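Quick check before the chapter quiz. The format below is the same one you will see on the exam, so make sure you can read both the input and the output lines.
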Amino acid sequence: MSIKPVVALIGRPNVGKSTLFNQFTKSRQALVADLSGLTRDRQYGDATYEDKSFIVVDTGGIGEADDGSGNIDDYMSEQSHTAIHEADIIVFVVDARAGMIGADAEIGKFLHTLGKPVYVVANKVDGAHDAAPAEFYALGLGEPYPMAASHGRGVGNLLEVLTADMPTQENVVEPKGLKLAIIGRPNVGKSTLVNRLLGEDRVVVFDMPGTTRDSIYIPYTREGRDYVLIDTAGVRRRGRIDEKVEKFSVIKTLQAIDDSNVTVIVIDAQEGIVDQDLHMIGYALDAGRALVVAINKWDGLTADQKNYIKIEMDRRFNFISYVKVHQISALHGTGVGNLYPSILRAYQSSMFEVSTNRLTQILQDAVTANPPPTVAGRRIKLRFAHIGGHNPPVIVIHGNQTSSLPKSYQRYLENQFRQVFKLEGTPLNVIFKQNDNPYANKSDTPTKAKAQQLRQRERNRAQKFTTKDKPRFTNKDKKR
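Here is the expected output.
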């Protein structure tokens, strides 16, 4: 058994790394648009070619603006260098249209020092002259692979070479774990919280709203349990989504929520609880995801501000009374460690198992304590219950006239299940199934087989009466 190998895509900005990432993963997991520097953080994805599987890492561009000026490009380069050291194989993507420039040569010199397999991909050959890939031989990294990643040309040839020495899927340990999505509005401290949870500077932290544009999937292990942490781009109010990138980022955030097991929503205590926070909570609950709320930057508030936020939480979070709310400081680590127990309880609640007998007994106890109302003189009967799904948990209750069950009584049953099973942090779906009368749609006209059966029954009855009424003769009568 072996761990999946890691392939890192590196190169200057806007050379087609994200497009190649999408070709490898057969998805649109990385954002792709004609904007330089769109990918800023490491983006992880699963790729499969024939019976081989590997992890591919998309990175921000390197080789430009590395002048120590402290701008975002410096951080992008740091992330790319980290991905290079994490990887088993390096794919160096260059632009065949632009030709080899000084930045490509500098990256090539650095790659020579690593002692790792490096493959040069001359991308965008569809817009370059035929001899364009040949000039990249000067990098000294072997034969360049011509490619038009946007059209998929040359991708198969590269995958065949990359996976030649990789283990087959049956010999690969698939990293699994609890998927944890970190969501929230821009600049509330999501990436800082991710770094604190991981214990390393894994994602870009920069004092500028909207720094994280993609959703970043980061597998890690803590106290023997596997996690996959998803850092998402911030979601702005609809009226402020002007750029194409921001629209993509909203989609990625919503996709991350759907893909997660537990969602942690980060709220800026200094800005207070706003409607956008409530909208994201509502979306996560509608998606059936377990939820934990983290009020960040708590240590920067005065006593009066803290009291105000607590009053606001009581007022605005009344619809999620079962969700744990934490006051934290991601920057200083205050209260961050307390998130994990709540995350695990929320996940366990969303995946809880119980037998049909036990669930039915809880249902009957609740009905005995508070019977459902009558409808048209007939009492609603709830007969039995069973588990119908997980994440979120689904409880299916069977009975008669369930469509007439008041919403208030449905909420009563949901609260009873929550209380008995101690369900925390997860929405609970209670579905009512009505047991129909099996003879309701039966026709009064007997079927051919039924009619034949009735005729045979009548013949048997007539024969019985005929035999009974027939005179009986004794031997004495016969002798006469």
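If your answer matched, good. Residues 65-70, 244-248 have pLDDT under 50 and may be disordered.
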